[in-house]
Amino acid sequence: MSSTPERDQRAISKETILTLYLPAAIIALGTSIVAPVIPIYARSFDIGFGTASLVIVVYALGLLVFTLPTGYLMDKLGRRPVLLTGPVITATCAFLTAFVTSFPQLLILRFLTGVSTVMWNHTRIAMITDSGSDRQRGKLITWMFSLERVGMLVGPVLGGFTAAIDIRLPFIIHGILIVLILIPSFKLVKETAPERTGQAVAPTSGSGEWSYVFGQIFKPQVMAFFAAQFMANITRGNTVGILPLYMAFAYNASAQTLGFVSAVSTAIVLPIGFLTGFIMDRYGRKMTVVPGFAFLGVSFFLMAGSAAFAAPFAVFLVTYFMVHASQGITGGNMQVLGSDLAPRRSRGRFFAIWRLFGEGGSTISPIAFSTLTAVASYAAGFSFVGLAGLSVALIIGVLIKETVGRSAKPEPATAAPATPERQPANS
Q1: pTM of the entire structure?
Q2: Amino acid 427: pLDDT
């Protein structure tokens, strides 16, 4: 498990607000401004649903292919340069997207945006793991995700209405917001990597860093967690992009409608995320993971029913809001659990392989969903995602030991180690 951090970052402090919560909210605001516009932008190139789905697929592919390089760079260069480079690329892609003249150009920029997103997403979790204690990490991560939802609350509506003025305007606003948050971040963000802050880590053996990391990964509990992470990201890959795309094609929803629906769903789930952080730090991680993913699975099965019976848009929205409510429970909790299991040494590489499983699920999710809808039906696609959600609840509930909280079992007493690092517990 992750050991006691080098410096105990508090969930509520000036440093945390300025370097974690505020950037997360602003970056999410910019991302959510363009989110409801991308399906409409793709449709403007006179293409069908299957081709338009590629804007989701290539973005997920960018997340996938740069996962391993991101982890390696975090260990090699440190957290700070990787964290700051990601938003620079995002801002550049946002400005360029506003002026694309063909669908292939849009696909290239969406791929690069996926690359930059993985740099930001993975490095910030690594930095929280470096600096947050076990009893603070749940709040730090889930509250960060909740603050992202604050940014998402107004972003979709703003994106929908600015797109009505000019379809390119939301992308320009996105780029400007990223630049504004980058300027202070270059001064405020500090390095947290243990190897670069003078903190003790396990000594390097002749086998090398990658061999050490794979030794941690092949422990049964970690392997079970990685499988659960893969299935968890299958459930998330669809809600990010496919559901708005589905509404645009199945119900002919406009950018304004998509923006309004997204904002309402964010308002519904916003309080849930703040509560889950308290629960995870006090009572344990599984207290939110298991019921949250079970609820998510059931919600997608109900959505499949609405698609099978061609239910009105209002009925579909009920299931849509249920899905988002369940994601309010599960948002960030797999990251918290993974940070508990991560070793201090070569943490970036461990994160890279862990997130490779997650991004693999995110990449497969829209591909599998689009394939199932093409050869079978939308109901089959939603049922597939629902099954993935239930499998996460089963794996975590049965195969993963509690890592923090009242039900966590203390580790057996052993001789004092040569270094202060604790390794992931064996299953």
Answers
A1: 0.75
A2: 35
> Is the per-residue pLDDT at 426 higher than 50?
no
Closest CA to 11 of 118, 122, 145: 145
Q: What tokens appear for 92 in the block?
A: 């550049």
pLDDT tops 90 at residue 210:
no
Q: In the chain, what percentage of residues exceed pLDDT 70?
A: 88
Backbone torsion region of residue 181, taken as left when φ is above 0, otherwise alpha when ψ lies between -120 and 50, otherwise beta? alpha
DSSP 160-181: HHHHHH-TTHHHHHHHHHHHHH
Judge contact between 402 and 409, C-beta under 8 A: yes
Distance of CA 155 to the CA centre of its chain: 18
Q: Is residue 426 part of a domain?
A: no
Q: Taking a C-beta distance cutoff of 8 angstroms, is the pair 389, 293 a contact?
A: yes
Domain of 146, CATH number, reads 1.20.1250.20
In a domain, 203, yes or no: no
Mean pLDDT of the chain: 83
- For residue 31, give Cα distances in angstroms to 27, 96, 147, 161: 6, 15, 13, 15
Is residue 383, in this structure, part of any structural domain at all? yes
Averaged pLDDT, 53-75: 87
The count of other CB atoms within 10 Å of the CB of residue 410 is 5
Q: What's the full length of the chain, in residues? A: 427
Give the Cα separation of 86 and 84 in Å (integer). Answer: 6
Query: What's the alpha-carbon Rg for the chain, to the nearest Å?
Result: 21
